[in-house]
């Protein structure tokens, strides 16, 4: 597979610099920005897409420019292996007495506060917290302004033991019947020890609802993890899609396993108490410890991180789906049964039928072990799931699949390996883009040995820490960035416009109602030359 | 891959008739039988293997002759697709009022009696039975002669509900500290309703211990199932290796699911109360029924069919190992997690290290979904497990892998697909023989559409009902038959000598102690010409 196979453009027109310039033009047009340099040889029409997308345009210009300049240093092959070398913090966990793990003041004060979506469509949240000294109240007080709580939701409390560790009192409370697109304030805990937070519900399910996701994987609790978390909080991402491997507490033994689950819960609270984290489980959640008599998979994780699985008719908290704004997000479990006839397989078969791209144009899948990945670490470990699910991913035109597991960043072209007469991946317009973001910064360090030569399916790869953002603009376009942790700064490094796999299709576009016609024409014409190009992103 | 690639013999010497004649000579020599026609062109030495194997020699002659004659009608390609057409019973379950499902007479009489190995090495059995009316006694009375019970073992009882079905009282009793190679009589139940059975323990773990296994898969409860069961009971197989899909009760709804688990328990009792059945689970054991609110996999199966999994340090009754006579038998679960990092993967990694071919030369693996299978039914469904475990199967030189799932018989050559530079199976002396015996006779009928042309890896295939036997003779040789159900008769159809993958290796043979030398030389010389040939069996 060469670049020209992927893009449909002559190879001579296809080095990374041109791809990024072309992208820049598309983004600029979507955002109604004047391009810095609209390369006329690409013969872009001068139509612009109307809409209220002008804000942040200067920032986008800068980001894209930096992206272009950064990519200039890469080689001219189809795929890019970034040669960027960055300073990093040592791959050791932050000491327990560091302030990032500080227990909140006050007797029995709620700690490890985190929220996740609580229903199928985004009108509910599950709020979780831990009290250390006694069970205390299970109530969440909720209101529309700070300090004024109009209603109360009652949750549950439980605790558990893991080897010789005894957990705190874990509270979980479903708060439902919320209004869309509304900021809510909530308080938990008793008396002087009570604590206050807020969250914002997503807009109502709508094909053109804009929404910004952050994507983090393999986070851990090192100083690199802290950079990732802080950088992600700077991006104004409204919800975090977490692709597995949370605390790396399984790197500890006996009592300390539970201790490091607790410290991680406090570590992510500054984000997770305010923004829903959509959880998926990784191998570090399995915690199969025969020497400790702990052999039931996912025990600590399942006790601590509830998911709204019944809302999507799943039978397990490990695989489920939520809809949020214009996105349908499917969470798969790499380490649960997934072959034909198993509950996860049967559930996914039904859930994919429930996806309605007219309502939620963006179909996003999360899993831990990547299906396509050209790092030596964990190479081909996603193959078992690939042979089972890849044909569905193409059939249902999944837009993008985020995975973790490999401690480096990588992005694929749109490729598939589902032809019975071949065993190599080939360009496939119906295939998802596969993105590996296992670079959250945990104590295991970076996976810096990529396979050489870079396989044809690999578009961009770099062994740095970071996270991604996916900013859905409307039913047709979303802007994606991978943000490297660079000397304490967040540097958007791999950026592209994601064309929707359903609404980006010409046939669908022609079916659009009249009131969408103006933007449709613009999208169509802007997209004509770049459609195949964006395949490769 | 052609026949000559596999055997190392010129293709002209390799049609099925020659292969079977050569086999016949080997078997005749092992059994100290004069061959009917020892084709001198194969230059077999006239050494014979001594031992007490002369019995049944006439039967073996007849079986092998029939095998040769049957194979003559097949084509001359590397693999054989049998064109045999047989009459079969309709693929419907036997009515519940048939005598094969009869409830034993007497109030609360024990029913659905079955035994399985209870420890790692064969000195214990787990005896299970059901009482319908009340819990009754949990005791098993055991003795060395009929009616004279020297000791008593105390078991447990439980019951469960499944949707609107309520089970009987399920008793499970571990009887341990048994002597090897000993017939034991046992009685269960109270007063007039008590029932009497017997079982025979295996010989002590010994590399030359002979032992005969029957192999059954996908049995169900039709008249075809009954033929299979009866035929297997005729073979004097001492233990049944069951490769999943027991009752097909999941084809029923609501209350009848439990009812058909009960009827199947009574159906197999004439064999399973006397011979241990080594259980593995198939897809029909999953029973994921969201419409009935039953979504926990394997519930009925796990309540009814205990396995000795703690003895092999497994954390689940669905995967485990037992050692029996000269065999190490590993049971895998096709529908449980098996990818890297999962409990089954970690357990298998350790269990394979525990295999000691000096003590148990025969390494046998059971699973449900076949790894190699060229039927259109379930084609490639074993691929997910293949990519995870195949390299271990070759590294540890597994002798034979039995699977079910596909309702037809098939046998592979010794092949593997583990080379990084190729994605096709190639001949591999270290690879197991893969045998699919999903032809027990259940109500779903036969899978009679094989892929055309027959793939190079497929040695023999036939869409008939039947079962297999594996008769281990010593550390180097075992005799294998697939026995077709043919107009109510058992007809051995696919037969071969299985050379042990560890002791059949020349290097190992040279390491043998002096007292084994005579038979070693014979094996070596007999094997020289046929070693590569038997690779293909």
Labels describing this entry:
homodimer, 537 residues, alpha+beta, Immunoglobulin-like, Purple Acid Phosphatase, chain A, domain 2, 3 domains, eight-stranded mixed β-sheet, six-stranded mixed β-sheet, 10 helices, 26 strands, disordered N terminus, disordered C terminus, iron (chains A, B), acid phosphatase activity (chains A, B), EC 3.1.3.2 (chains A, B)
State the gist of this model:
Chain A has helices at residues 3-7, 16-30, 57-72, 223-234, 255-272, 299-304, 343-354, 383-395, 506-510, 517-535; strands at residues 80-81, 111-117, 125-131, 139-143, 151-154, 156-158, 161-162, 165-166, 169-175, 183-188, 195-200, 211-216, 239-242, 277-279, 320-324, 327-331, 362-366, 400-403, 409-412, 415-416, 426-427, 433-437, 458-462, 466-472, 477-486, 489-499. Helix content of chain A is 23%, strand content 24%. At the A-B interface, helix 8 of A face helix 8 of B.
